[in-house]
Amino acid sequence: MAIEKVKGYVSGVKINDVLYQNIRGTSATPVAIKFECSTKYPCKGIKLQNVNLTYLKKVAQSSCANVIGTTMGLVKPDNCL
């Protein structure tokens, strides 16, 4: 299912207190970690713990917008929290 972005649209969904733990593998895209949260309702309490993702056996990338969180243990790619 594809979701089309509508200019000026602000999501009404709040995402809080999510833990991503012990995740490892290969990403299908160069950006392996991506949080694109609402300006009105930023994601809060996001935690990454022991996450190790690569892209084509190389370092992957991360991208964050309007997210507040923490990391614990090894987290690759370098995160943007």
Automatic annotation (TrEMBL):
It is found in: Secreted, Cell wall. Keywords: Cell wall, Cell wall biogenesis/degradation, Glycosidase, Hydrolase, Secreted. Pfam families: Glyco_hydro_28. Gene3D superfamilies: Single-stranded right-handed beta-helix, Pectin lyase-like (2.160.20.10). One of its GO terms (molecular function) is polygalacturonase activity. One of its GO terms (biological process) is cell wall organization. Belongs to the glycosyl hydrolase 28 family. This is Polygalacturonase.
